[in-house]
Amino acid sequence: MGRLIVIEGLDGAGKRTLSDALCAALADRGARTARMAFPRYDDDVHAELARDALYGRLGDGDAVAGSVHAMALLFALDRRAAAPGLRTALDTHDVVLVDRYVASNAAYCAARLEQDAGGEIVGWVRALEIERFGIPVPDRQLLLAVPGEVAAERARHRARTEPGRERDAYEADAALQRRTDAVYRGLAAASWLSPWTVLDGACSPDTAALADRLLG
Fold first, then answer.
1. Structural domain tally of the chain?
2. Which of 95, 96, 148, 157 is the most exposed, fewest CB within 10 Å of its CB?
3. CATH assignment of the domain containing 179
4. Structural domain for 8, as ranges
């Protein structure tokens, strides 16, 4: 059985860059590595609807985007649909790297409701995704921590330079991003779901050393 390693962080934190580098470092050490990223906007109807809501495509006064629980359910259903493939990957690889997972849902929900990492909605997300849907629990979660203003500037740059990457409603809300960062740090401090490692996203993490720790 492989290890499920999750990379979490704000939009613009550099999760994809870290995933690329860490995957290469793991491969250099002979580890069979698979990757997955959530939300799966192009592969799952629930994620597709969530994206439409985030870009205001479901009509004026969109009841879906306005409901924290409705958005959380769409993201959770995406992971539920992906769970069989994730289990297969864990059975056939040493490491499965996932960009965003359950903690992302918990952090953004709590931030939207202005709750902290111990808030009611965090428990609700855990009960829904882990206990009811039974999706695999991470072995370790990596928080790529960056100042909110740094992540925001990276997200703006990505929106300017990458076609089709305009910022969505969550990414464009600076206050929401700051609150989400605080919740993420609280989840990490509480070892929510599994142990966490907090990485300084303002510089390039030592992925070689990180790969050694993850395989150790």
1. 1
2. 157
3. 3.40.50.300
4. 3-215
